[in-house]
Amino acid sequence: xxxxIAIFSAVWCGFAASTGFAVAEDASTPQRLYEQQCASCxxxxxxxxxxxxxxxETLSRMHGPAIAxxxxxxxxxxxxxxxxxxxxxxxxxxxxxxxxTPLAEVPAWTATDIAASRSMSARYVAATGPVFKADPLNLFxxxxxxxxxxxxxxxxxxxxxxxxxxxxxxxxxxxxTPDGRYVFIMSRDGWVQKYDLWSLQxxxxxxxxxxxxxxxxxxxxxxxxxxxxxxxxxxxxxAEDLSVARIFDVADKSGxxxxxxxxxxxxxxxxxxxxxxxxxxxxxxxTDPNAEPxxxxxVHSHEKGMEEALPSSRGLFARRRIKVSQPLDDFFFDPQYRxxxxxxxxxxxxxxxxxxxxxxxxELPLPGMPHLGSGISWMRDGRRVMATPHLKEGRLSIIGVDxxxxxxxxxxxxxxxxxxxxxxxxxxxxxxxxxxxKDRMHIIDKQSLAIVKTLRxxxxxxxxxxxxxxxxxxxxxxxxEDDGALIVYDARTLEEVRRIPMRKPSGKYxxxxxITFSEGTSH
Length: 523
Ligand code: DHE
Description:
The chain is mainly β. The protein is built from eight helices and 35 strands. The strands form nine sheets. Strands 1-8-7-6-5 form a five-stranded antiparallel beta sheet. A four-stranded antiparallel beta sheet has the order 4-3-2-35.
């Protein structure tokens, strides 16, 4: 019966939208209207179904047409129909406001829910080797957010080997197993998709959270960590079959819950590092089964009126808390993963944390919202430096990684989002993501720090996010538009060599550069 109602309402929803059949006025409140028109696809609790979740955590991060416009006109390349002919503009405006309202309480998403969402592809057959001739370690995975697909490109010929549908609204870098065979892709609705790059087939998918930030894979490729905003958890999945291995309820030592801003792999430490949004702690979770015991410190025991030692944890998934002075976000790691630099929410500064001793060791004045997660590093005059763009200022900050001092600043034509380089190129490529010069891409000499050229691939269209092939011969630039393109440049002459039409190619990731933690890419 429930199934029949669901089918009826899905059909009705498409029928009403497509015929312009006026919706009765008993749809008196936006909530009631939502239940009638949207719930069959987007879920009764707005947490998603065949359509994405309609909650502010997801919607406020989506770029594109305003919500009311999507309701009225539908969304191209998806199953979202147009309601403009069947709903009044007041009803549409009411609906748009309703779905922007935060949920009354943080919903649960338990191990049982996750397990129930897991679906392994019945058609998947694992090939014994790559089913193509291209170098499997020089493939590119290109996320096309325009129509929620991924293209797999041969990194030598730039032929497209496959193009497959992803979950709605992929965010962050896909993560690869250490051998480069499998890639994991995450959507803002918490779906994780596993794809086999040798067989060119989806392996399966699972919903690990309701609103997720990013994923990280363990050093040995066995575990996948999913950072969630909703609920306040870190989900650890088996990378093999996407089953749930562990769920951490995230809260500080005194029990205050927190969203997880991001999770990163620290390869030299064989651990995951977590940035926490709401509490002044950084977490480290061991992915080494033989990890040393982690001592959690002392708590005050009211019963005994004394300090009592907290039990230590050891081995796989042992958790360590690092106390910091305020919540830190958006981490850059030095190449040895001895230090991280995190952005402090207030005060226009960044904080350096030594991961070995587990405390803050330096502060850097970095106003204008540094985007440390995009930071890259290289050797300059015998010294390692890192560079970070700023989301609110047209400049790059160049920082000495040895003494954490500001070495220089490079003035750019506007605030940037992403930076890229490669071991074998003398240049850093920096986009100008925001403002009137969003169509520009600066090429900066790594030694002199001079801008040697500014590309303008498509006047008026955003040029963003660069990735090199494994040899550093070519640099791929996205034209970040719905009818966009991927432009391949010769990394030495800086001339265009190829243009491949794509649907808003938001990011592209080279297998080799990612699995070797190339210093020119963000990790
Ligand atoms: Fe991202 C990576 C956080 C907005 C596109 N973004 C990341 C990562 C984090 C992050 C923590 C690193 C994850 C990883 O790769 O494992 N992003 C945030 C934000 O906090 C912010 C500012 C606001 C938000 O919550 O959404 C934000 N990000 C955006 C966008 O608006 C972008 C431009 C478009 C979009 O798709 O939403 C965007 N973020 C990206 C991309 C990466 C990314 C393409 C991967 C970069 C890479 O090269 O590795």
